[in-house]
Amino acid sequence: MPRTIYIMWLRELKKFSRSRSRIVGALGQPILFLLALGYGLGSVFQAAGQGSYIQFLVPGVVGMAIIFTSIFNGMQIIWDRQFGFLKETLVAPVSRVAIMLGRTLGGATVATVQGCIVFALTLALGFHPYSWVLIVPAILIMFLMASLFSAFGLTVATFVSDMQGFQLVMNFLVMPMFFLSGALFPLANIPLLLRILATVDPLSYGVDGMRALLIDTPHFGIAADVTILLAITTLLLAIGSFVFSRLQV
Amino acid sequence: MPNIIEVKDLKKSFGRFEAVKGISFSVAQGTTFGFLGPNGAGKSTTVKMLTTLLRPTSGTILIDGHDPATEPDAVRHAFGIVFQDPSLDEDLTAWENMELHGVLYGVPRGTRRARIDELLAFVELDDRRNNYVREFSGGMKRRLEIARGLLHHPKIIFLDEPTLGLDPQTRNHMWEYLGRLNEREGITVFFTTHYMDEADRNADTIAIIDHGAIIASGTGEDLKRQTRKESLEDAFLELTGCDIREEGASGLEHLRMMRRACGR
User: Fold this and answer.
1) Quick one: A110 exposed, middle or buried, by C-beta within 10 A (0-12, 13-18, 19+)?
2) C-alpha B129: how far from chain center
3) What pLDDT does residue B177 have?
4) What is the pLDDT of residue B262?
5) How do beta strands B58-63 and B3-14 pair?
6) Which of A56, A190, B156, B182 is deepest in the core (most CB within 10 A)?
7) Residue B195: left (phi > 0), alpha (psi -120 to 50), or beta?
8) DSSP letters spanning chain A
9) Does B258 reach chain A within 8 Å, measured CB to CB?
10) Given CB atoms, is B76 within the 8 Å cutoff of chain A?
11) Which chain A residue shows the shortest CA-CA distance from B45?
């Protein structure tokens, strides 16, 4: 079991480190959001008495890098299905749960690295966390979030058999999860419907956890964030393991 | 000789469509078995059931004495497989694909490394070990898949249309490897093909499946004698008819895709 998890984890890392274009490509979007929205809406945000928008936005765009990288990575199983490699793992005499866990951890590691690169760039662009020590637990939050969305991507991808399905998931699940999460706006004083949607969106808790640790402006509170992230990750791993063990090709 | 593969009344339905309608056959240990049939006859579905990828609707299968439904891992240890479509990770090197397989099958490190060297030399890919698989030609990928399928020393190797799209040289080479393996290790070879001369030349016994049922079996000579034909190709056409079949495999694939989309 640990062997299987390790080799599947290693595979994700190798594939990631070999696709430079993907690493660079995945940096573009969060940085664009940070610069365009950060500077574009910065004065409005400040005038509304909310302080620096760039500071507020950094945990949001790191969360963005993480959700996109980890779901994209989880959904690579669609490619594996099309290119046949999935069958190689499905006929192997190992538990499907181990394969699922290895892939999830691999995807989570990759997404965390990506999140850290984006975070380092924001530091270079002038972001200053309120405590340098708290960056360490913030990275743990990133990893937790990345595990959650990797497991989510894998689980969803077992029901999707082609690229069209992938686009569908991206447009109708991932984009709404990003935009409704409070990554771009404060969750206080928003309309009820939006608040409900943000509350059931797991990304909200990841972004909020990072905000609590990096700029000390939590909405739900770090304890609630961690508890909810852990609970959803566990649940998704369980569901993912189940559907993965039932998978036939 | 004991039977290493034993199949009884095997059935598989997709919705209302019966892909395999209660077939029975057996393969003796150490022999080469050719499983023939037109497109959509149920070949791939049967291979998938034998190799734990698909659950049968009913019937029993014993692979090396184990039932794929109840002891999948014992069955998985017993066979190696070369799928109809490539199943390598193209972003990894030849060696890394082998290593990953070895780890998944629990081959201890020392043995694993030695066998990888030996097998890569065997399929004449040792000088390309550190190349990415995406740079390989179709024939090279096939050879690598055969090497990979043998890495855990299986008792049976399944080959689903292994020579599809290969030139005669590569095809010949491949059968030479398999023949040597069969002699040296006593490995049982189970293959499907559309090339009748290939089946006639290499298979000890042949079974022909059509519309989900086995319609003839025996040696190549038996089948020719039965149909009073000169070649296995003619015998095959006599048995299965001359109508061109619809691509049943893709139709089936389509059906399963719809089922999946409906979340069942």
Assistant:
1) buried
2) 25
3) 83
4) 43
5) antiparallel
6) B156
7) beta
8) -HHHHHHHHHHHHHHHHT-HHHHHHHHHHHHHHHHHHHHHTHHHHHHTT---HHHHHHHHHHHHHHHHHHHHHHTHHHHHHHTSHHHHHHSSSS-HHHHHHHHHHHHHHHHHHHHHHHHHHHHHTT---S-STTHHHHHHHHHHHHHHHHHHHHHHHTT--SHHHHHHHIIIIIHHHHHTTTSSS-STT--HHHHHHHHH-HHHHHHHHHHHHHTS--SS-HHHHHHHHHHHHHHHHHHHHHHHHH---
9) no
10) yes
11) A249
Q: Using one digit for the tens of pLDDT, what is the confidence trace for A173-203?
A: 999 999 999 999 999 889 999 999 999 999 9
Strands B156-160 and B32-36: unpaired
**ipTM confidence:** 0.86
**Which H helix or E strand runs over B158?**
strand B156-160
Per-residue confidence (pLDDT) for residue B41, from 0 to 100: 87
Q: How many Cα atoms sit within 13 Å of A91 on the Cβ side? A: 31
Which pLDDT value is given to residue A201?
Answer: 95
Distances (CA, A) of A47 to A42, A55, A216, A225: 9, 15, 20, 29
* Distance between CA atoms of residues B73 and B244, nearest Å: 39
CA separation for the pair B135, B103 (Å, rounded): 24
SS3 B157: strand
Q: Tell me the average pLDDT across A222-231.
A: 95
Q: Determine the straight-line distance between the first and last CA of chain A, rounded to whole angstroms.
A: 23
Kindly state the tokens that stand for B62. Answer: 């014993």
Structural Rg of chain B based on CA atoms: 18
- A·B CB contacts under 8 A: 79
As averages over each run of 10 residues, the pLDDT of chain B (264 residues) reads 91 92 94 91 91 93 94 93 90 96 94 94 91 92 91 92 81 86 90 89 92 89 86 84 63 49 42
Q: What is the pLDDT of residue B257?
A: 47
